[in-house]
Amino acid sequence: MRYARPFALAITGVALTATLAACGASTEGATTGGMNDTPSSPSTLTVQAADIAFAQLMIPHHTQAMEMADLALKYGSTAEVKTLATQIKAAQDPEIAEMTQWLGGWGAPLEMPGSDDAGMPGMDHSGMDMGGLSAAGMMSEQDMGALDQARGADFDRVWLQMMIAHHQGAIAMAEQVLTTTTDEQVKALASNVASGQNTEIDTMQQLLGS
Amino acid sequence: MTPSRLVTRRQLLVGAIGVGATAGLSACGLRSPSTPVGSPAIAAAESARATTGTMRDFALRAAPAQVDLGGTVVDTWTYGDSLPGTTLRATAGDRVRVAFRNDLPEATSVHWHGLAIRNDMDGVPGVTTPEVVPGGSFDFDFVVPDPGTYWFHPHHGMQLDRGLYAPFIIEDPAEPGDYDHDWLVVLDDWTDGVGPSPEKIYADLKATGSSGGMGGMHDSGMGDMGGMSGMDGGDVTYPMYLVNGRAPNDPDVLTAKPGQRARLRVINAAADTIFDVALAGHDMTVTHTDGYPVTPVTTRLLRLGMGERYDAVVTLDDGVFPLVAAPVAKPGQGRALVRAGSGTVPPTVSRPSELDAYPLTVDALRAGPGTALPPQDPDSVQDLLFSGSMGPYVWTINGRTYDDTVPLTIRAGQAGRLRIRNHSMMPHPIHLHGHTFQLGAAGGTGPRKDTVLVPAMGAVDVDFVADNPGQWMVHCHNAYHAEAGMMTRLEYLT
After folding, report:
1. Do B357 and A143 touch (CB under 8 A)?
2. A-chain residues within 8 Å CB-CB of B29?
3. Is B227 left (phi over 0), alpha (psi -120 to 50) or beta?
């Protein structure tokens, strides 16, 4: 469970491809979604690089969600939490398989180069609390450890909080790739992630507030 | 030397993003006249505010002062000789008059953070309100429209990172008051008089950054953070963290009886530090953020970005408990003590297990009843892209520093949406003056806020109603980032 840092490094690349069209000036009168969504003239290479990065990052992101869902099936104290966990697994497991297949088809590696943090000194700096400030809603090793230790109502609460943040990260990544991709299968999956996980966030917020 | 301060490093990473953003952002300008101070629209908006008819008069003075930080007496600047400054209290709808006098050796201003007041009283020199020269004064006069936990501070250079801050509590006439105590918990990161001055730190960040490489950023003790940690909480590690203006070895003591309920009004007044807050051995039920009610959520640990406020209710056990504020991704701790009944004072070094809990952030919260904006599709959608670089030390919005900014625009009465995109590897607390936006979509479930901590690489959409004409700052509430350029304006077109 050591995604936090390579994850952070990797999504930088995604950001680079996506900043190209941002225009900060007024788009007064623009409708939702506006004119800022379409890159001016991205090269095919850039577009596919963003698709590849998306899949390479979303696979470990989903994998972590599966691990969190497994913990909920084990330790969740309410039917609602277990039902959600089952739902999340049912949604994300096939998506992992699909994205893995894309990468194979594109001839791209499953993992982004450098995403193995062996050889990245400083990652696990002893005594330095990274404070859970990981990117894209990825949980740190410490977060996952805390979740693994929690039980009862406390488990449910922490799990819901974490999964909301995790989903927010996935939605941000999905919305990001939707601004660049021209690939219909990427569009479909990213749209599903954004809408499906938004609905789940709504449910989880309601459970937290109850 | 000040071994406890270090400047962290992530030049390559955020630097690269900055280049990308800059390259894409040229030729976006299209200017129209905006609503200046003196516009009748500002006075008209003020006249339209509902008032109680009550007038509250305050005197406020900014001046050099000595503050005792746990035995270390430092020279700094404060409001009214205390740290934090004396809390101002009024009731929603009151007309507030503040006779402000500047006895500092340099010009200053007072900004009323979070209050949606008339634009020409917002306290931003050069935009809304004249700066107040040394020895000068300014009479503020405005109606405070909305109840809640607010605060005030200078909007002038690095002055916020001295002792110039104080709470501003707007009472709610309809508050059920389901608690026995109403406690202020004001958090700060402190260097003035203990480490280098804020101005020196900023100058060092600029100077080291402008050397262009990593070479100048060698720090003490943590050299193998990998050069660009990417998960930093801030750019500066402070020698001291304060709760209610007190050092950890001489904490503020909040006293109650076991079983009583206390409302904590937590304000992050720090310049460069995100805090995780916990009361040892207790759950906290979060009830408000940035003045507005949320659907209550219980947590053991609460995270606040700079400028954010959270209110939480706790039911007190029997004993003495540290109320800790741990700076995120930095060493050190701020603390107060809650004394409810008997018990011994816990040692200063103790680290409550709550700090290992997962912190509650705004993601998990929903708007309280009656606080959502009217459901409405936005008339105007604008992007706010945050990026930056440690070398050179430059932080930008939409690829531009403030001196070169292309302001956002809106027309009075419109529904606005800001699409906030953080394209940097550190979180930024984003603050919009003069409005309290709704996270997500207007009429949706997101809470109302005026300052939102946007995670590294995170994305947040916020909706607002353009009901307060003028020219309003939009900026990162990291004082160093703001000074290095991470600010723009939202201007009402006339």
Report:
1. no
2. 25
3. left
Q: pLDDT digit string (tens) for B117-160?
A: 999 999 999 999 999 999 999 999 999 999 999 999 999 999 99
Which one is predicted more confidently, B7 or B385? B385
CA distance A109 to chain B (A): 23
How many Cα atoms within 13 Å fall on the side-chain side of residue A113?
3
- Chain-chain contact of A32 with B409 (C-beta, under 8 angstroms): no
Sequence-separated contacts (24+) of B219-223 with Cβ below 8 Å: B219/B6, B219/B7, B219/B8, B219/B9, B220/B1, B220/B3, B220/B6, B221/B3, B221/B6, B222/A125, B222/A128, B222/B6, B222/B8
Interface A–B counts its CB contacts (< 8 A) at: 203
CB B123 within 8 A of CB B77: no
Buried b (16+ CB within 10 A) or exposed e, B145-165: bbbbbbbbbbbbbbbbbbbbb
Name the residue type at position B47. Answer: S
B161 in Cβ contact with B271 (< 8 Å)? yes
Report the residue from B30, B363, B385 with minimal CB separation from A22.
B385
User: CB-CB: which of A12, A160, A176 is closest to B13?
Assistant: A12
Instruction: Choose from B301, B363, B406 for mutation: most chain A CBs within 10 A.
Output: B363
Interchain proximity A26–B398, CB inside 8 Å: no
Which residues is B386 bridged to in the sheet? Answer: B397, B422
Residue of chain B nearest A133, judged by CA positions: B231
pLDDT band at residue B27 using 50, 70 and 90 as cut-offs: very low
Tell me if residue B126 falls in helix, strand or coil. coil
Confidence grade of residue A10 (pLDDT, cut at 50, 70, 90): low
Report how far residue B414's alpha carbon sits from residue B378's, in angstroms, rounded to the nearest whole number: 8
Q: Which residue of B has its CA nearest to A35?
A: B381
pLDDT score of B375 more than 70: yes
B457–A136 C-beta distance less than 8 A:
yes
Q: Which helix (H) or strand (E) holds B87?
A: none
* ipTM given for this complex: 0.77
The DSSP 8-state label assigned to residue B212 in this structure reads -
Nearest residue to B483 (alpha-carbon basis) of B154, B103, B102: B154
Q: Which residue has the tokens 């723009």?
A: B488
Q: How far are the Cα atoms of A27, A171, B100, B281 from residue A200, in angstroms, in the given order?
A: 31, 11, 50, 31
The verdict on a CB contact (< 8 Å) between A208 and B297 is yes
pLDDT, residue A20, reads 35
Token pair of A99, please? Answer: 């994205």
Distance from CA of B147 to the nearest CA of A (A): 22
Q: How far is A199 from chain B (nearest CA, A)?
A: 12
Does residue A187 have a pLDDT over 60?
yes
> Nearest residue of A to residue B24 by CA position?
A20
Instruction: List chain B residues with CB under 8 Å of A32.
Output: 377-378, 381, 417
Confidence category of residue A24, pLDDT binned at 50, 70, 90: very low
The Cα–Cα gap between B215 and B189 comes to 27
Please give the residue that has the higher pLDDT: either B225 or B84: B84
In whole angstroms, give the CA distance from residue B322 to residue B302: 15
Say how many C-beta atoms besides its own lie within 10 A of residue B49's C-beta: 16
Quick one: pLDDT at residue B232? 63
Closest residue in A to B276 (Cα–Cα): A131
Set of chain B residues whose Cβ sits within 8 Å of the Cβ of A136: 457-458
Give the pTM: 0.85
- Is the Cβ pair B226, A120 closer than 8 Å? yes
- Phi first, then psi: give them for residue B440, nearest 5 degrees: 80, -130
Write the residue in A20, A26, A134 that is nearest to B231 by C-beta.
Answer: A134
Cα separation, B202 vs A30, whole angstroms: 39
Decide which of B416 and A5 is more confident: B416
